[in-house]
Amino acid sequence: MGHEADIAGTSAAALELFRQHDYDLVLSDIGLPDGSGIDLIQKMNEIRDVPAIALTGFGTEEDILRSQRSGFFRHLTKPVNFQQLEEAIGRLSVFTWAKPKRMATGMPHHRL
């Protein structure tokens, strides 16, 4: 996909990276070892607004609504369909007027 990505295995590590870098996009799991992606994206948005995509095994309608209400632009259920992921990133790129070049991920066992 041509993007740079930083990997964080915990929400604490992701939040620390987020404070240090100006990310164009955040990809996060909902279930993290030390918290939830829901809490993480809310904390990040308190610092500054950032487009975010949830990549998760939680896929009920309630899960999707919760993630969208918390600040995620898109909720993708694992296993991830990479075409849907590319489309979501593309839509966010158009929305933010620039293609994302640097991403933060909060997915302890997954790499892009």
Task: Name the descriptors.
4 helices; single chain; Rossmann fold; 112 residues; two-stranded antiparallel ribbon; five-stranded parallel β-sheet; alpha/beta; globular; 41% helix
Describe this structure in words.
By secondary structure, the protein is α/β, with parallel strands linked by helices. It has one domain: Rossmann fold, CATH 3.40.50.2300. Helices cover 41% and strands 23% of the residues. The strands form two sheets. The protein has a five-stranded parallel beta sheet, sandwiched between helices. The protein has a two-stranded antiparallel ribbon with strand order 3-4. α1 packs parallel to α2. The longest helix is centred in the C-terminal third of the chain and has 15 residues. The protein is globular and about 30 Å long. The relative contact order is 0.27.
Adjacency order of strands in the biggest sheet: 1-7-2-5-6
Count the helices. How many? Answer: 4
Gyration radius, rounded: 13 Å
Query: Based on the structure given, which CATH architecture is correct?
Result: 3-Layer(aba) Sandwich
Q: State the end-to-end distance.
A: 9 Å
The class by helix and strand makeup works out as: alpha/beta
Integer average pLDDT = 86
Q: Domain count, please report it.
A: 1
Unreliable runs: 107-112
- Look at the structure and name the CATH superfamily: Response regulator
